[in-house]
Amino acid sequence: MFECVPNVSEGRDASTIDAIAEAIRSTPDVHLLNVHSDPDHNRSVFTYVSDSADAIRDATLRLYDVAIPRVDLRIHHGAHPRVGAVDVVPFVPLETTTMQQCIDVSVATAQQIAERHHIPIYLYEHAARHDERRELPVIRSGGFENFPQKIHDARWVPDFGPAQVHPTAGVSVVGARVPLIAFNIQLGTDRIEVAQACARAVRGISGGLRFVRALPIALASKGLVQVSMNLLDYRRTPLHRAFTLVETEAARFGVTIVSSEIVGLVPAEAMYEVAEWHLRVSGWKKNMILEERIRERRT
Amino acid sequence: MFECVPNVSEGRDASTIDAIAEAIRSTPDVHLLNVHSDPDHNRSVFTYVSDSADAIRDATLRLYDVAIPRVDLRIHHGAHPRVGAVDVVPFVPLETTTMQQCIDVSVATAQQIAERHHIPIYLYEHAARHDERRELPVIRSGGFENFPQKIHDARWVPDFGPAQVHPTAGVSVVGARVPLIAFNIQLGTDRIEVAQACARAVRGISGGLRFVRALPIALASKGLVQVSMNLLDYRRTPLHRAFTLVETEAARFGVTIVSSEIVGLVPAEAMYEVAEWHLRVSGWKKNMILEERIRERRT
Lengths: 299, 299
Prior knowledge:
Two copies of one chain form a homodimer.
Chain A: E1 2-4, E2 7-8, H1 14-25, E3 31-38, E4 43-50, H2 53-70, E5 86-93, H3 99-117, E6 121-125, H4 136-140, H5 143-150, E7 172-176, E8 181-187, H6 192-202, E9 212-219, E10 224-231, H7 239-251, E11 257-263, H8 268-279, H9 290-298
Parallel strand pairs in A: 5-7, 6-7
Antiparallel strand pairs in A: 1-4, 1-5, 2-4, 2-5, 3-4, 8-10, 8-11, 9-10
Helix pairs in contact in A: 1-2, 2-3, 6-7
C-alpha cells in the first residue's frame, strides 16, 4: 500500500481545501483518509492511500491540477515555512510496499508535474539524487521569497522542470520517506521565545533528540505558541520522550503544556509505546493487544 | 466472534499448562491467543477465540477434560483466591457477536461440564440467574476450603450439577461478561500492608474507582507485593487513572511502582486512551490512528 501526504499552502479557504479533497476522493482506487487544515499555519495536509502506484500518482496529479490555479504564494501569509503552493509531497510505503516502489512513483509523479505545470521539482529523502538535497529543511531554507536567487546557484538546479521559480506556485519538493509523525505541542503562553527555547531543546540539530525536527510557531488565532515537530523515527525517538522534554523546558519558564495535536494520522504502534511506557508494562509486546493478536492469527 | 478466558488453578506445572494449551489449540476453528501463567498466583489464564459457538464450547470442554484429573485443590496453594480447579470461565462477545449469544454458549457449556464431571456450576455476570450471585467476588468468598459449608445454604444451590463440592475440583463459575482488563501493579516493597492500602484506595467497593476490583497479593518469588486488579469497564475507568491512584497511594508509604502486568490481552482502544491522555491530544478520536482509518475504509 502506498501512502501520500502532500502539504498544501492553503489552510483558510474552505472552498479550495474542499476542491482538493474532492479531487483526491474522486480518483478511482484511492482512499482519502484525513484532511488537516490549520489557519495559523495557513496550510493543509491531505493523507490518502492506494494499493496501486498508478492511482496514487493520478490522485497527486489531480491535487496539483486543483491547487496550482487556486493558491498564489505571492499573497500567501502563514506561520509555517514553505517554498511551494504544493509545498512537499512525500510518498510513504505501508504494509508490504517497498521504499523502492515509493521512490519510483515519486519520480514518475515529479516528472509529470514538472511537465504539466512548469514547476521546478526537488527530489528529497530516499528519492534524492544529491546527498546535500536530502533533507527538507535545507531545501526549504530561505522560503519561497528567497528561491528566485537560490535557484540560480549551480547546487540548486532542479531535478525536474525549469530552472525558474513558478511565479505563483514556487517550487515543489517530492520524494519518498519512512512514516513520520507530525506532532505539535501548544504552550500556555503567547511568548514566542518560550516555544523557541523548547524547539531548540527538543530538536536533534541543536543537541536535542536525534530524530526530532522542531519549529516555534505563533498561533495568533489562539493567543498561544506552538512547538511544531516532525518525529522522523518514532521507534527510536518516541512521542512521550519528545513530550516530556518540551514539558520540562517549558516548566523552566513557568509555562505548561495546554494540549498537543496530531497532524494527519499516527501509527497504532506509536500510541502503544506511549501507553506502555507510562504504565511501565513488563515485557511489553505488540501482540498483547487483543486485536493485533486476532489479526495475526487470521493472516 | 466469541472469546473465552478460563482461569485454571495451576501456574507452576508446565506439563499441565502445556497439555491444556494443546487441548485448546487442537480444537478445530479455535485460535489460542495467549497463555499467562503465574507461579505466585499458582494460576493460568488461557485466551482463545472462535467464530463458532460450538467450537468455543468444544475447546472449553476439552480444557476441563485435561484440567480436572490433573489439578487437585486439596494440595493447591497460591496467592490468588479460588473455588475451582477450573475456577472461572467467562465468555466474552467480540466484534458483532452479542451478549445473548455468549450467555447461550455459557449456559450450554456449563450444563455439559456439570453432567460430564459432576462439578457444581454457578452462572455469573450476564448469565446469572440470581441477582445476588452475579458478582464473582461474592461467589468466591470463603474460597474452596469454605465451599462444603456454603453449598448447603439454600442461597447457594448450584445452577447445574450436584449440590456437593467436587473433592478435587471444587466448583466452577461460568458465565458471560463484557471485556475486562486484568491489570496488576508491582510495588517496590515486600510489605503487604502497602498493597492492601493501595487496593483499598483504588477499588470501587471501598470508595475508589467505580469499575475497579483490586486485591493485595504477595509475590514471594519476586520479594514484592502486587495490587491485582480487574478493570470492568475501561472506557469509564481507564488504565491510567487506576495506575495514577495506586502510584499516589504507594507514594504515601515512600513506595514506587516497579512495573505493571497485563494478564492475557488488552483492547487497543484502552492503550490509545492512556497514550492520548498523557499526550493531552486535542480532539482525540480513534480514527486518528492510521491503521484504524485504513481498516474503516476497507470494510
